[in-house]
Batch of 3 targets.
Target 1
Amino acid sequence: MMGRVVTTARPFVVESTMTSPLPTPGPNDEPWWSRFAKLEIAEVIRRRASAADRRDVELARTCYHPGATEDHGGFVGPVDDYLAWSPISDEGPRTGMWHCVSTPLIEVDGTEASAETYVFTVETVGETGPIGRADMQVGGRYLDHFEHRDGRWAIAARQLVWDWTRAEPGTAPYWEIMGLPADKLPMGHGGPADGFYGLRPPLDQR
């Protein structure tokens, strides 16, 4: 099919201009609707990770359907309650948090899908932490159940599986050790002070 292809991902709309026809899938090929669904689902997973690191509750909420559930770090229940309890809203002793997610393994079945995504998390804890200043690493997997409702794919249920962890005493920041001028380095922040928000429109403008 020639022309413009539009996928109705929310809260973003992804558009591309095709310069050649899409090939007709063979009998053993994955259909195009399934491939586009996987692209939208993967975007939701990445957006959710970014929302955690930016402490952006509203952005995190866009990744779920109403009534979604979360099984995460000892919490099991409605996602709205989780977001109010989690480090996004209450950092506790944490002074930094960073998530790196893998390419997810996604299976689509009509208007439902499952996704397994490996996640590597780094957290820094200040002096008020249970073992004092520390750097912590967590390796795990997100097991997500997605549903397509109201024109969008979003999480209906998420479980974090813990595979391994590591903690070690904190050290001086890299820039101090290497003698770099901290006041001239673009630093990550939670909330709108982070440079991420200069790259994208606010929620109420999408």
Target 2
Amino acid sequence: MTDRLIMTARLMMGAVYFINGFNWFFKIIGPYPSISDFAHIAPPPDVVVAMIQNGMLFHMVKATELLTGIALLSNRFVPLMLVAALPVTLPICLVDVFFVATPRGFVMGGGSIILNIFLLLAYFSHYRTVLAHRGVPGFTEPASAPDSEGALAAAISRFVGPIFPIFGIVAICFGAVMLCWLALLITQYAVHPMSFWEIHRAFAPR
């Protein structure tokens, strides 16, 4: 059962990140920003657009999402990409939950961090030596030390072990809602394509 939870969560997070990253470069979701939305019109002032105005920053964020999605869907370099995705996932969660502050923001932002943390724990064996409180240099050979795993890794295992399956079910529930939401937006854009600006003008307060 645990293996199926992990595989399902991996595929869900991979699909969510792939779709979000892909949409930046090739628009498939109307309300979400894409490169093409800002070809002739400057972005409005907000947290996300501040990164877009930076130039390379948002490109790097979306490229990380896209590469993470490809890695998780193909089951290649998963432990590496889960760590690489975390600096992207955490700001996504903060912006969606605290700045967007809508049910959609809570589900998408909260779901992203829950899936990311669950999968980090699922692949925890790959990170045990990183948690050693005294590191030993080693380039040509694996690092070894008397406390190669450390007390912290053991404590995390003891704490997470009993609740891990429940955490996995919660993560998958969030992932299912996230994918349903993205599928709805993709279908909506395919049936009735509207630009980022048209959608935001339609819903702007009058």
Target 3
Amino acid sequence: MNFFKIIFKNDSFIRGATFIISGNIVGQAIVVISSPILTRIFLPHDFGIFGIYLAIVSFFTLISSFRYELAIILPKNEIIGLALTIISLILVFIVITILIMSIFILGDIFLYYTDSQSIKPYIWLIPFSVFFGGTYKAISYWLLRKKSFNKLFKARLIQDSSMVSAQLILGASNIGVIGLLLGHMIGICAGMVALFQDSFMSIIK
């Protein structure tokens, strides 16, 4: 009971949770609304390749900072929180470097044993998407620590709207499945840039 009293007495917690949930709902709504149009532009085979690509990117994004980003919100000391954010970003860079070398050396073997040969022409996009996704994740926890919930909401809208817009434009250009992949990467990049700008402002204040 005491736990729930603390939560509901803390208006900032409720507002923050509302912002984050609302951002996720609106972002997903944008994706769902665009789905009927995207399914007319791209082939079912394209979405199959996109699904495999997303699974690989999501896995490497999850481990890109070794989950250090979860610790960013814990310390009471602001400098330690910032240090953990920087460590998370450095780890993302290290993982991306290893990933790029692994793709060049072991890419074919990885695709063979994971039965993912269909994405071979687009495997070079994976490090970029993982980098943007890992960076987005680390910075979002810093802003969560700073209770910048409105900025997280804005970044989520920018990410999803940019992704859908890019996929629609590229799809209309008849470039095939790479339109889905590039659109996804552009969306994550746009969200990351929005978060980076806001996090930079929160640091220098």
